[in-house]
């Protein structure tokens, strides 16, 4: 299928394409490995988390990976952390939600597509009413991909945290609706929280330095294999669990 232009007015064609788009797994592995040579994140795990994560991956359970959002550098440091952690085994089988503007430039779009990107049309960029139908379609597509066995990585805060990098900001209900819809399709996603810290920063509104980005701290929480029934309860669980992981990332920096 020909790649459609990622525009809000083209939303049906966009999500028809990303419903079936398959990334090149070998290329994805190469890209993640390259980023792991540029960045050297510190990886830590909660007690029992590494073994539990290894087990659910071996069982081929789809992962719903939640990461706090601090910087425009995050996609690169997260990719490096994936390569240097137990997530290496699922590289090429995880979709990543990314804001639509990142798909505008052809070269960048090819990279994002190769890394499993799915565009998100955000209300803060286009207006809440304008993106409502697109958001519903996006959540359906994500749920269907999870039901097919793919993982999904999400920054559930929706935007960079420029308030307090040590505190998870409000989590929207979207991640809860995706998990809820995936379960209605017969999938049982496993929540994996990845706390991210670039260390103490005097001004969270300023991007981390290159050195801070290169040495980010990531902390994995214990995977949660049984999620609540309601989307709002899932979203609340995500925020609570992600805060625990973020505390671990800050402590390990």
Tell me the major beta sheet.
Answer: 7 strands, mixed
| Contiguous helical run count | 10
Shape: globular
CATH class: Alpha Beta
Distance between the first and last residues' Cα: 44 Å
Rg value: 17 Å
Structural class estimated from helices and strands: alpha/beta
CATH topology title: Glycerol-3-phosphate (1)-acyltransferase
How helical, in percent, are the residues?
Answer: 40-55%
Mean pLDDT: 96
Major sheet: arrangement of strands: 1-7-6-2-5-3-4
Strand content: 5-15%
Count the domains.
1
Question: What does this molecule look like?
Answer:
- With 253 residues, the protein is an alpha/beta fold.
- The chain has one domain: Glycerol-3-phosphate (1)-acyltransferase (3-Layer(aba) Sandwich).
- The protein is 45% helix and 14% strand.
- The protein has 10 helices and 7 strands.
- The chain has helices at residues 11-20, 25-38, 49-58, 74-83, 106-114, 123-126, 128-147, 174-184, 210-214, 231-252, and strands at residues 42-45, 63-67, 94-99, 117-120, 151-154, 190-197, 217-220.
- The chain has a 7-stranded mixed β-sheet.
- Strand 3, helix 5 (106-114) and strand 4 form a beta-alpha-beta unit.
- The mean pLDDT is 96.
